[in-house]
Amino acid sequence: MLRKLKLATKFTLLLTLVFLGGICLSGMILASAMQHLAEEDVSTKAEILVQTMNSVRNYTDNTIDPLLANQLLTAPAFIPETVPGYAARQVFEQFRTHPEYKSFLYKEATLNPTNTRDQADNFETNLVEQFRQQPQTTKLSGYRPIYGETLFYIAQPLKVTQQNCLVCHGQPASAPKSMIQTYGTQGGFGWKLNEIVAAQTIYVPADEVFMRVRHTLTLVMSIVVAVFALGVWLINRFLKGTVIQPLKQLTAIAQKVGAGTITVEQVEGFDSPEIIKVAQRADEPGQLARTFQYMAHEVAAREQNLTQLVKLRTTELAASIKEAETARAKAEAANKTKSLFLSNMSHELRTPLNVMSGFVQLMMRSGSLNSQQQNYLDTIRRSGEHLLTLINDVLEMSKIEAGRTTLNETNFNLAALLDWLQQVFQFKAKSKNIELIFALAANLPQYIYTDESKLRQILVNLLGNAIKFTPKGKVTLRVSVVNQEPLTLNFAVEDTGLGISSAELENLFEPFVQSESGRKSQEGTGLGLAISRSFVQLMGGDITVSSQVGVGSIFKFTIQTHAVVTAQIEIPTPSQQVIGLIAGQPTYRILVAEDKPENRQLLIELLTSVGFEVRCATNGQEAINLWQSWQPHLIWMDMRMPVLNGYEATKQIKASGTPATIVIALSGSAFEEDRQTALSTGCDDFVRKPFHTEEVFAKMALHLGVRYLYAAESISSINNHHLTPQDLVVMPAAWIAQLRDCATKVHGQQILQLINQIPASHAHLANGLTQLVKNFDFEKILELTI
User: Residue 555: its pLDDT value, please?
Assistant: First the structure.
């Protein structure tokens, strides 16, 4: 409908709507303001009236009553003029003779009046109670309906301020007999000094207040309407003259230009006086008119320069396309750079750590080091592991911020995970004399389907923090079922520790942010809680915290999952030191494809030391050449190499059609998508740097069926041999001290590293300690180190 209207009609309609809106808004504002002014005027008059009445009341009480005190006691009839309230009411009646006070009504609304006409009704009783409850209040006003009419009221408190008042209103025995004969003893007695006994209330019919508003508002609105109407008419006339009419003329020009029939000879028709007049203006219509004139000349000349113009436009279009392609290529390169950054960071940071960790493990396997050298190596190893933890936290946070973190959901034993957590943290809690409580709901499923690794990391972070920052008391993990469909689990970690201030709670889950307690401990990166929150959100929940300094903290989170009836749980076996290959097996040919010399040396020495035949390649092309000529059983393939990377080399090897060679990818990347990429190109498995020697041997046993000789006794001898402190005497004192320190901190992995240093001649000690670590019996290890 509106689209069919002409522009002039639309302008008129719009201005009319603006006019009506302005009138309505002005009316409401003026009405409200004038009503307020009218109420203020009535209130002012009422206050003047009450002040005058109270002045007469005080004069009567202080001057008249003392003069007539004897007469009041002896007079046979009560004298009204001696009553302050009577004198005040007479003043009110005098005021009502004036026109502006004629409609005023007065009531001395009293809760316990002498004269029943002054008895306060329910509304007035509420006024008196408000004055009593709020002594600082000196005035109340508003509207009240009564007997079908609305009255505007102004009320002020009436307080007993004169001792003389108590002569008549104290006890009946002290009151004038004439007063008792007139009013009796039922009311008006028992008043107290400084007590608010009444509300001096003046009523004015609301219609009179509104009538004053209406008279004034009618006059003002008449003026406003006239001003608005004149303004709208002038604006409408101005718009039509400056916009509508020029647009009509320009429309005619546009129609002629659009017809495409203008020639050079016809251009003069667009230079008419009317168009020139419009074009000389500096506003938008003038600019538009000049534009149309220019367009007319351009259309007239198009037949002459059409070929040149098309060529020019074609050149400009090609330049624009090239520029757009360049911009798109830069954007794609930037996105690719951002995508590769995290992978490069992971590779560049973890690869040197792999060399450090690997050579430390090789040296510790030799068993020929003295205690001081072992201590140096253990210090290097522990520092490397700490650095790897920090790097992993930073990379994990980077993955989260880049949106590259995904869930790796599997069926797993939730009960076993919780049991593992309790065993791991139980001794650490006992060492601080803290009670560790696991409160698990009875209906908790044994097996669930979610990302076990991320759930474990969340709980390890929260429980670790709780124990670290709890000097005494207890730490409690509560696990319950919130919903069955879908299965929603609630986890809560409560502690009685140091607590967190409210100022720190707001940013507690931000990356690299630590609480005051965390900063004092000088441990961690400030990423644990940020990573935990991201993992929880990834699993369909959220994490919250409530804390009080000196009382403790409660961290709660929920996850979405579902229960499973059965699950295949892979139980890890304790690591044992590989010392050789069992006789009677093939001679396994192992190819190491690695461009970094130190990484090649690490794997070569590790594999050759136990009996594998090993060759190496420095790039993917060399790996393909050696594979073709040597036919290795297994290739350790680094993914990032010059000439030809590991991905392309693996594709060519797997695409040959010959009996498949096992290819295990080696990568410094910590990202799951890089693992998936390697597997999708044909790799049979994936190992991240830095790796443990046990992991390398385990992967080869898995894919080739290699059988190893271990520095260990049979399981039966392990079970039959009970270790004593005397068994540890063969090891240096520094080694025993490290073992005790690791057992105190429940560092099972570090204990296994120490076990690798035990000479092969004392395999019973190595296997016995390994069994204790497997059973989480860290207390027994501590007993052995005494």
Answer: 94
- Give me the phi and psi of 23, to 5 degrees please: -65, -45
Residues 362-377, mean pLDDT to the nearest whole number: 63
Q: What is the separation of C-alpha 605 from the centre of its chain, rounded to a whole number of angstroms? A: 51
What are the structural domains, with CATH classification, of the chain? 37-215 (3.30.450), 406-561 (3.30.565.10), 715-784 (no CATH)
Residue for token digits 């409408």?
236
Return the number of other C-beta atoms located less than 10 Å from residue 554's C-beta: 16
What share of the chain in percent tops pLDDT 90? 17
CA–CA separation, 531 vs 457, rounded Å?
9
Q: Which long-range contacts (CB under 8 A, 24 or more apart) does 234-241 make?
A: 235/15, 236/11, 236/12, 236/15, 239/11, 240/8, 240/11
Tell me how far apart the alpha carbons of residues 467 and 475 are, in angstroms, rounded to a whole number. Answer: 7
Q: Which residues pair with 411 in a beta bridge?
A: 449
Instruction: Quickly list DSSP for 284-340.
Output: HHHHHHHHHHHHHHHHHTHHHHHHHHHHHHHHHHHHHHHHHHHHHHHHHHHHHHHHH
- CA distance linking residue 299 with residue 293, whole number of Å: 10
Predicted pLDDT of residue 175 = 74
Residues 188-197 pLDDT 10s: 787 888 888 8
Question: What is the amino acid identity at position 147?
Answer: Y
Closest C-alpha among 732, 714, 728, 734 to residue 769:
728
pTM across the whole model: 0.39
Residue 36 CA to residue 572 CA, distance in Å, equals 84
Instruction: Kindly tell me if the per-residue pLDDT of 468 is higher than 60.
Output: yes
pLDDT in tens, 315-345: 888 888 888 788 777 756 654 565 556 556 6
Q: Which amino acid is at 16?
A: T
Dihedral sign computed on CA atoms, order 108, 113, 115, 121 = positive
Q: How confident is the model at residue 115 (pLDDT cuts 50, 70, 90)?
A: confident
**728 in Cβ contact with 785 (< 8 Å):** yes
CB atoms within 10 A of CB 565: 8
Burial (0-12, 13-18, 19+ Cβ within 10 Å), 366:
exposed
pLDDT(146) > 80:
yes
Rounded to 10 degrees, the C-alpha dihedral 398/343/385/697 comes to: 140
Tens digits of residue pLDDT in 644-664: 999 999 999 998 867 779 999
- For residue 546, the cross-strand partners are 554
pLDDT of residue 566: 56
Please enumerate in sequence order all residues whose Cβ is within 8 A of that of 293, keeping only pairs 6 or more positions apart, or say none. Answer: 253, 270, 271, 275, 279
Contacts of 377 (CB under 8 A, 6+ apart): 360, 363, 364, 369
Residue partners of 61: CB distance under 8 A and separation at least 6: 84, 162, 164, 165
Q: Give residue-wise pLDDT tens across range 531-559.
A: 888 889 888 899 999 998 889 999 999 99
* Coil/strand/helix, residue 639: coil
- Are the beta carbons of 236 and 12 closer than 8 angstroms? yes
Higher pLDDT, 781 or 61: 781
Q: Which residue type does 756 have?
A: N
CA angle centred on 82, ends 78 and 84, rounded to 5°: 125
